[in-house]
Amino acid sequence: MTSPQKVFEEISGESPGSGPK
């Protein structure tokens, strides 16, 4: 399963590490 951080980024639609906030 994907890491909680990754999941949160996906459901949030934002990726602090690889995408505009």
How is this structure best described in words?
The protein starts with a helix and ends in a 9-residue tail after the last helix. The longest helix is centred in the middle third of the chain and has 9 residues, at 4-12. The protein is mainly α. The mean pLDDT is 66. The protein is elongated and about 20 Å long. It has one helix at 4-12. 43% of the residues lie in helices and 0% in strands.
Descriptive tags:
21 residues, mainly alpha, 0% strand, elongated
Short description:
The protein has one helix at about 5-10. It is mostly helical.
N-to-C CA distance = 24 Å
Poorly predicted sequence stretches spanning 5 or more consecutive residues: none
Structural class assignment: mainly alpha
Which H/E pattern describes the elements? H
Number of distinct helices: 1
Radius of gyration: 8 Å
Region (Disordered): 1-21
